[in-house]
Write a structure and sequence with these properties.
351 residues; alpha+beta; Alpha-Beta Plaits; 3-stranded antiparallel sheet; 10 helices; 30% helix; binds flavin-adenine dinucleotide
């Protein structure tokens, strides 16, 4: 949908069909990312929250970042998809069907969806990537609640609170305070195997109890598994975009910014007659993220420290740039200097 919305802006007369079997409501969840005031303005109808402060906490310290230029923005996925849909042009249409099969003959693609076979000169495929067993992943369950009493620090997002059970892998609580009585709390793991649903729920309950936060009512639940490894597209003959093309940062699981950049660039290219999909994340960044994950797998005892030191080495603006892949050479230098050298040097050759 992001590509279609960008095409509607940059190539509004292109003949495009977007195949999506799920409704916006069926796809609803929270998508967060760092963005400027311009992003907040452009995405206002889909914004559920924006913050200028975020924090990471472990048993020893709290790293709090504040930013003037950057916002941590949370969108309702459903409202974002509706915004994209409203932007489509008469020749760029949504088809509410799954693609069952794609065949190629003489460089023309034949897509079967519903009872119709569509022909296309170019296919961009954002079906979710193949799942790789044993790969690193971020898996989580979130609970959206109303609280009985107002909470404190409702102007601050908690990106990672590590003061939870670390015995099964890197584990943290993520909190989005939409107001002082409206929260999304997620129990998130970065590891190679999922946990039973009850385990995440109990973690959230304990976290709330320890802080004396009583639940007035439940608003909803969401869960997800985000691959943090190399992604393989479902069909190697099509041009993969989105997660299947590697838009997910392997060290953090964030992909929204990268999908926006990729689809905007691609729409620009298509308007000029070029159909090559832009590489979403530079090879250097992919290498650094893979090295980071390698150290996490081989040295789980260092995991919390790695995130805390990385965040502690940067201020708010720098951290936001780091998370969105736009950090400068010197900001990278700060992060590298803050890391323990021996494990990174030892695993550099096996990435
Ligand atoms: C609960 C949850 C919370 C998340 N939070 C964040 C976040 O805060 N920040 C962030 O950056 N990322 C977040 N993510 C990850 C983010 O959603 C994904 O990285 C991103 O959606 C990938 O985009 P995509 O377009 O590549 O694929 P998807 O968004 O997965 O879209 C793939 C689409 O393909 C459709 N499809 C499947 N099969 C077919 C078929 N045969 N024919 C036609 N269509 C098909 C599916 O219905 C789906 O709509 C979250 C994920 C989840 C599940």
């Amino acid at each position: 949908m992001s590509l279609a919305a960008n095409l509607a802006d940059l190539a509004p007369h292109a003949e495009v069909r977007v195949f999506e079997p799920k409704t916006e409501e069926e796809r609803d969840c929270h998508w967060s990312f760092w963005g400027s005031g311009r992003h907040v303005e452009a995405l206002k109808p889909a914004c559920k929250g924006t913050w200028k402060r975020w924090q990471l906490i472990d048993h020893e310290k709290k790293v709090v970042h504040e930013s003037v230029a950057q916002n941590y923005i949370t969108l309702s996925a459903s409202d974002y998809l509706k915004l994209c849909k409203a932007n489509l042009s008469p020749t760029i249409q949504l088809v509410r069907n799954a693609v069952k099969k794609i065949d190629y003959k003489n460089n023309v693609a034949f897509l079967s969806a519903g009872d119709i076979t569509y022909t296309a000169a170019h296919v961009f495929d954002s079906r979710p990537p193949e799942k790789k067993s044993g790969g690193m992943m971020q898996h989580f369950l979130g609970r959206e609640i109303r609280t009985k009493e107002p909470i404190t620090e409702s102007d601050t997002v908690t990106l990672m609170d590590f003061r939870v059970d670390q015995s099964r892998g890197l584990h943290f609580i993520y909190v989005l305070p939409f107001s002082d009585t409206h929260l999304l709390i997620e129990s998130t793991m970065i590891s190679q195997s999922k946990e039973p649903q009850q385990w995440y729920l109990e973690t959230i309950d304990n976290w709330l109890n320890e802080r004396g936060i009583s639940v007035e009512s439940d608003i909803g639940y969401e869960s997800g598994v985000i691959p943090m490894d190399n992604c393989q597209p479902q069909d190697s003959r099509t041009s993969a975009i989105g997660a299947a093309s590697g838009t997910i940062r392997q060290s953090s699981g964030y992909s929204f910014n990268y999908i926006q950049q990729q689809t905007k660039q691609l729409a620009g290219r298509i308007s000029r007659g070029c159909y090559e999909v832009p590489t979403p994340i530079s090879a250097k960044l992919v290498f650094m993220d893979r090295l980071f994950n390698r150290v996490l797998i081989k040295h789980p005892e260092l995991s919390v420290k790695l995130f805390m030191q990385m965040a502690g080495a940067l201020n708010g603006e720098q951290f936001a740039r780091f998370m969105t892949g736009t950090a400068s050479f010197s900001e990278w230098g700060r992060v590298i200097l803050s890391m323990p050298k021996t494990p990174f040097l030892r695993h550099m050759w096996s990435v």
